[in-house]
Design a protein that fits this description.
Number of strands: 7
Structural class: alpha/beta
Radius of gyration: 17 Å
Bound molecules: adenosine monophosphate
Order of helices and strands: EHEHHHEHEHEEHHEH
Length: 220
């Protein structure tokens, strides 16, 4: 199964993508996570991208496309993948089309996850992430069992540097200008499904798996 998750920052793409990845045993490829790994390892790429990310801007297409192309060539992507946060511009979408054509594969389904901007801001400001395993929590909607500690690895949870209200506003502006046009780009191509993300996360997961034509195969 090859899946693209579209949607603004904070709609819950990452949480849904990790459930899909677990259920279908395919890699969850998040360009945001790939960049954060580079930043944590203090690589040349990490140094180039951190200021764009901290300001809520997109990383330039050529850097993003290169890192994604490298990741997609991994052996673990042969049986499928779920893309979370890529593509985010029309140029990235066109490059992805080219990559897939060269690999002789195609996307099975594009899921467009939507949510109003006010709820997005509330979701992002309450988001907490485990720095060790990447698990995502929300202080109200999906809290850890113990306050601010990851259920899986007992590590202290963190807010992301780009999850402040000012940076979120910028990221939403960028989304509406550069990423939203992808809805039109993909709605004329293959299977494209809109999924509303308001309400409990588990309800969105149910809608996602219904769109994928299956029910959630593993407990999450
Ligand atoms: P995310 O974790 O998907 O919210 O992404 C965090 C940040 O990483 C974004 O605000 C961008 O600065 C950068 N980023 C992630 N994916 C992309 C992409 N496809 N194109 C450009 N920048 C990206």
């Amino acid at each position: 199964m090859r899946i693209i998750m579209l949607g603004a920052p904070g709609v819950g793409k990452g949480s849904q993508a990790s459930r899909i990845a677990e259920s279908f045993a395919i890699p969850h490829i998040s360009t945001g996570d790939l960049f954060r790994e580079q930043i944590n390892a203090n690589t040349a790429i990490g140094q180039k991208v951190s200021s764009f990310m901290n300001q809520g801007m997109l990383v330039p297409d050529e850097i993003t496309i290169e890192i994604l192309e490298k990741r997609l060539s991994g052996d673990d992507c042969k049986n499928g993948f779920v893309l979370d946060g890529f593509p985010r511009t029309l140029q990235q979408a066109a490059s992805l089309d080219k990559m897939l054509e060269e690999m002789n594969i195609s996307i099975d389904i594009v899921l467009n996850i939507s949510l109003d901007d006010t709820t997005i801001v509330r979701r992002i400001t309450g988001r907490r992430t485990c720095p060790a395993c990447g698990a995502i929590y929300h202080i109200d909607d999906c809290p850890p069992k113990e306050n601010d500690v990851c259920d899986r690895c007992s590590v202290g949870l963190k807010s992301r540097a780009d999850d402040s209200v000012e940076v979120i506003q910028k990221r939403l502006q960028v989304y509406h200008k550069l990423t939203r046009p992808l809805i039109e780009y993909y709605s004329g191509k293959g299977r494209f499904v809109h999924i509303e993300s308001a309400g409990p996360i588990a309800d969105t997961t149910e809608r996602v798996f219904e769109a994928l034509g299956t029910s959630l195969r593993q407990s999450v």
